[in-house]
């Protein structure tokens, strides 16, 4: 695929089929920015289509009075494919090979304009990272990381993602969405989680919310 045309950016999940030495070798060869977002969002385009199909389904459920979606699906997909798509300005059934470049330019330029307009953070801003909530997380637990990071790079992906670095200037793997970040002021005081050892007038501690590399 890359021999014909290579992308500037390639977003995947953290699967080993994507993050391995062979893929890294190819992305470096073709100068492709391969990244992941450490996000709960997955296959957003597919999820958007599924949501649209579900909306069609519920209308039919109410009209037909039953929930046999398998029987309804062919007609629903046909309706979707013959409905004008807001983003591309055409019906999916009308799109052919000859439209590829025109649609790519239309969609990409639209995305680029939106991204440039809606960048919430800039390089140098200090932020906290949203904590991913599990099923058993207690609601009163903090939603944001104690550790503070700095925006190192703004990536013009869709949507915009941000590359972060920690207090030691080490870049954090993956990119982060706007919704996963909270802008904060850099603190002058840090909380101590535990004292590791004492030596006369000095104390070696572990800081609350930071890993052991910051001790």
From TrEMBL:
Occurrences of domain Chromo (ranges): 190-215
Gene3D superfamilies (UniProt xref): Ribonuclease H-like superfamily/Ribonuclease H
Recorded GO MF terms: nucleic acid binding
GO biological process: DNA integration
Residue intervals of the Integrase catalytic domain: 1-100
Coiled coil: none
InterPro entries, A to Z: Chromo/chromo_shadow_dom, Integrase_cat-core, RNaseH-like_sf, RNaseH_sf
Record-linked SUPFAM superfamilies: Ribonuclease H-like
N-terminal signal peptide: none
Identification of the protein by name: Uncharacterized transposon-derived protein
Species in which this protein is naturally found: Anoplophora glabripennis (Asian longhorn beetle)
């Amino acid at each position: 695929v890359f021999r014909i045309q290579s992308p500037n950016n390639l977003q995947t999940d953290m699967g080993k089929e994507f993050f391995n030495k062979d893929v890294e070798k190819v992305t470096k060869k073709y100068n492709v920015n391969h990244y992941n977002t450490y996000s709960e969002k997955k296959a957003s385009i597919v999820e958007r289509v599924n949501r649209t199909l579900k909306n069609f389904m519920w209308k039919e459920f109410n009209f037909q009075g039953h929930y046999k979606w398998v029987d309804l699906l062919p007609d629903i997909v046909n309706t979707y494919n013959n409905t004008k798509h807001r983003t591309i300005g055409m019906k999916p059934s009308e799109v052919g090979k000859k439209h590829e470049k025109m649609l790519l330019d239309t969609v990409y330029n639209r995305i680029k304009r939106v991204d440039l307009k809606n960048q919430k953070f800039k390089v140098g801003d200090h932020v906290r990272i949203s904590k991913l909530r599990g099923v058993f997380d207690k609601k009163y637990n903090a939603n944001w990381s104690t550790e503070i990071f700095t925006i190192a790079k703004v990536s013009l992906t869709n949507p915009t993602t941000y590359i972060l670095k920690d207090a030691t200037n080490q870049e954090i793997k993956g990119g982060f969405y706007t919704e996963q970040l909270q802008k904060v002021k850099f603190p002058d005081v840090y909380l101590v989680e535990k004292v590791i050892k004492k030596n006369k007038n000095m104390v070696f501690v572990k800081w609350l919310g930071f890993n052991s590399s910051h001790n």
